[in-house]
């Protein structure tokens, strides 16, 4: 076959050796693994095989990344709401004494509408990895960023952690989508920029990769086999990247990786079925997020239920149905999806990071993940496979 686009990662071989057993990486005895490099290369299959034989090098064929598309979308009149959104209340952020002060959070998504009033007074650092320029023509990234750190809009509180002073907006999905090479580069950038929490509402497009291989002349069986190999290699690359991120803790640069479980399940279909968590959320070291909705949208005390579209096998859950947040171009918008649940978890993580910073003077990513997962509340009638440890909860 013709040459293809590959991701080439060079990393401390000692760190790579530990990835297979998933050990605790945060206590290396030597110098920090600061020599990580991630680059894109056009290689033949023989050249890729040659790269694999080199110590400390991981190679994965770049796979398409796709937005985890919202299931529903509705414009919201600003004067139709007052006070905090139901998601902010559900995770307990409205009564928490913490606001995310002192914490940097990264949103790796479709970009951000930096001029939206929800981001007034917030230092936003934009970085475009797609070549399509900064900004957000889709609106997905703006909505997610608003849920994490948005300031009040016309009396409506949309942000779980509205005291976050600095937000990194990495644009990894442009008009033509993106690739796993971009997310690898963006994660490294966010950690280098000091992010304690990285939020990702995107997934690997496995069917799209198969279709691409078929278009290039491979039979369906061979295309599927190649996609499985690429999936395996990308999973290992993401896990190595996660190990690298955790290893940076000793050296002052680290964070936790929060990612959406995906919206492919259909619990409300005539023949209901569920789909497992998709990468990158399925990768070791990522906090995967399921979506919850209100059992009765008109009754705030009516309890919660797993969203019918939410994939199964996530670590934690958060509000992901009828979530009101910032709309690109101004105003508010209601969206549903695990993409909307993920920024709730990122915001709660920022609150816990502030608590750790105040209590112990540093944000240990392993301890932060333990706090976020360990303080999640069990939701009645939501099983462990569907909701993980339960609904994430802000520190009181």
Description:
This protein is α/β, with parallel strands linked by helices. The chain has 10 helices and 19 strands. Strands 7, 8, 10, 12, 14, 15, 16 and 17 form an 8-stranded mixed sheet that branches. The radius of gyration is 20 Å and the shape is globular. It starts with a strand and ends in a 9-residue tail after the last helix. Mean pLDDT is 87; it is low at 19-33.
Give a short account of the largest sheet.
Answer: 8 strands, mixed
Secondary-structure class: alpha/beta
DSSP summary: helix tally: 10
Roughly how many Å is the radius of gyration?
A: 20 Å
> Overall mean pLDDT score?
87
Annotation, overall tally of beta strands: 19
Strand content: 15-25%
Low-confidence region ranges: 19-33
Q: Termini, distance in Å?
A: 58 Å
Order of helices and strands: EHEHEEEEHEEHEEEHEEHHEEEEEEHHH
Name the shape in a single word: globular
Helix content: 25-40%
- What is the quaternary state of this protein? single chain
